């Protein structure tokens, strides 16, 4: 009885791991986001129960491809942190960081789940982030995490946590994509990954698309994750990002769609690419909090009315 109660408690509280990395991005600054969110008055005012775990900080070795040694070492430490959290059945949220942190986040989660089955993943983003070091024009590793999670690219990055591919093509769905280069598109399409480009989101509506993405990520998997790059949203909803792209997902519609999803098999969430130095009027900070509440309120005794009231108070 006691054990059950403890497990229940761990399941409902959000356990946040900070990923304070930023030098694999187009512009430095995402490394500040975890600290900003930790001190965020908007998040502190939220009725959600949160416990902050460790914040993993890299030892940067440079930018573009010179960042690689630092990213490898950082990814290994982040993967340890997420693996432990999932093994302890905590309700995990990772706050990045540039999107290269996804290598560490999902490698650790995949290792923890492996005995039970494969990991599914919904990747919300403007970009495909599916380059290898060889195919990338910029050398920025935040444009490469998906290729490495699928088992392509640099061997040491592919082998973070363990040598297995972290995700199989049939369990991955991209949502909101509208910026990519031919080589990365060719890679993901040739192996059959489902990409919901922005055109399809616009024509079918985000509700339908998210429902189908959830089906892909949860069929024949041990559970699934969501990696949310806030540049997937409209620039007016998430202005503080390093690589903005016009024509994104309407953030309010996205959150309405997420509220309708069955998230009972959600293992972990990651919110990345928030660049605090560009955040006028805390607009993007507020979006991060709204996303967290949208996803997590259902797992706690917090009612949607309480969340709405909080949003009005701080809005
Ligand atoms: N996580 C991101 N914001 N990625 C943007 C990647 C942009 C471009 N495709 C590149 O590889 O450099």
TrEMBL record:
Keywords: Arginine metabolism, Hydrolase, Manganese, Metal-binding, Urea cycle
GO CC annotation terms, alphabetical: cytosol; nucleus
Necessary cofactors: Mn(2+)
Listed Pfam families: Arginase
One of the GO biological process terms: arginine metabolic process
GO MF annotation list: arginase activity; manganese ion binding
EC id: 3.5.3.1
Domain of life: Eukaryota
Catalytic activity: L-arginine + H2O = urea + L-ornithine
Pathway it works in: Nitrogen metabolism; urea cycle; L-ornithine and urea from L-arginine: step 1/1
InterPro entries, A to Z: Arginase, Ureohydrolase, Ureohydrolase_dom_sf
Family: Belongs to the arginase family.
Name of this chain's protein: Arginase
Organism for this UniProt entry: Plectus sambesii
């Amino acid at each position: 009885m006691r054990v059950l109660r403890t497990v229940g408690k761990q399941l409902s509280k959000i356990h946040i791991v900070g990923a304070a990395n930023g030098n694999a991005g187009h512009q430095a600054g995402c490394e500040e986001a975890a600290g900003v969110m930790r001190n965020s008055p908007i998040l502190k005012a939220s009725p959600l129960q949160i416990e902050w775990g460790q914040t993993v900080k890299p030892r940067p070795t440079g930018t573009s491809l010179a960042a690689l040694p630092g990213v490898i070492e950082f990814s290994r430490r982040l993967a340890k942190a997420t693996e432990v959290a999932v093994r302890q059945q905590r309700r995990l949220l990772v706050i990045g960081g540039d999107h290269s942190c996804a290598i560490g986040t999902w490698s650790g989660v995949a290792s923890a789940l492996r005995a039970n089955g494969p990991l599914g993943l919904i990747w919300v983003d403007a970009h495909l982030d599916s380059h290898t070091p060889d195919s990338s024009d910029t050398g920025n590793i935040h444009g490469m995490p998906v290729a490495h999670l699928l088992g392509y690219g640099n061997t040491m990055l592919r082998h973070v946590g363990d040598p297995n591919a972290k995700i199989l093509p049939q369990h991955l769905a991209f949502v909101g994509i509208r910026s990519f280069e031919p080589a990365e598109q060719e890679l993901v399409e040739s192996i059959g990954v489902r990409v919901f480009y922005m055109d399809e989101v616009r024509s079918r509506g985000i509700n339908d698309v998210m429902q189908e993405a959830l089906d892909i990520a949860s069929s024949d998997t041990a559970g699934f994750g969501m990696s949310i790059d806030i540049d997937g949203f409209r620039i007016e909803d998430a202005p503080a990002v390093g690589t903005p792209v016009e024509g994104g997902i309407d953030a309010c519609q996205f959150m309405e769609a997420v509220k309708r999803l069955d998230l009972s098999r959600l293992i972990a969430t990651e919110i990345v690419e928030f660049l605090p130095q560009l955040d006028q009027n805390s607009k993007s900070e507020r979006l991060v909090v709204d996303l967290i509440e949208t996803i997590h309120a259902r797992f706690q005794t917090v009612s949607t009315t309480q969340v709405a009231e909080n949003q009005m108070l701080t809005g």
